[in-house]
Amino acid sequence: MNAQKQEFDSKIKEIEEKNEKIKGNLQDQIDGLTMENEALREKMAEKNKQIMEQKAVITDAMKIAQVRSNYNEKYPRKTNVKIYGLKEEPKENSSVEVIRMLKEAANVDLCDEEIVAAHRIPGRAGQIRPILLKVKNTAVKSRIMRKRSTIKNLSRGLRLADDVTRLNSTLIDRLNNHDLIESAWYFNGSVYAKSVNSDRRIQFDIYDDITRKVNSR
Fold first, then answer.
1. Which residues form a coiled coil (predicted)?
2. Is the full-model pTM beyond 0.90?
3. Which of 152, 162, 105 is nearest to 132 (CA)?
4. Has residue 208 got a pLDDT over 90?
5. Domain spans in the chain, listed from the N-terminal domain onward
6. What values do phi and psi take at 133, rounded to 5?
7. CATH class for domain 78-162?
8. d(CA 9, CA 17)
9. Tell me: the pLDDT tens digits for 35-50?
């Protein structure tokens, strides 16, 4: 009986040793996988950091490119005027119609030599197409735009406006919808605004942080 018990105990011990060895091997494998997993996490974190840095660089580059593009686009428009509400005539000469309108509506004398180009451009469906007028220089444009209010107040619904880039137009809308801004406008190629707490005008660019810029004044 003692011999059988000893044999049984020996087998149990052998099984326990094998189990311990197996457990040890498994733990070694788990530890190895854990280390590999941690190394992969560190590599992924580093890759994500690099990707975020690259995205930031790309975003900054795109912003710089858009600012430059907007800058380059707005200057050829400095001598442009958009005329809204001028009735369109069959086979009209836009330059002649503009000269006539400005004289009749606001007593502005404009001659052919002061006009570089004048033509209709696409407008909103069902409305009169605007005229894009390009004049010789900013002095001529100022002479016309000084009569903007006079022309706007006419019953015929005429209106003069600057030829603003899409990005500057979006900026003006963003400013006018901001709680700290009382009014925003376009002048001589740039966008300006007046805050609700100050009479000073502030010049804005397309990616300016409005709140920060107003509060820094």
1. 1-57
2. no
3. 162
4. yes
5. 1-77, 78-162, 166-215
6. -110, 125
7. alpha beta
8. 12
9. 888 888 888 888 888 8
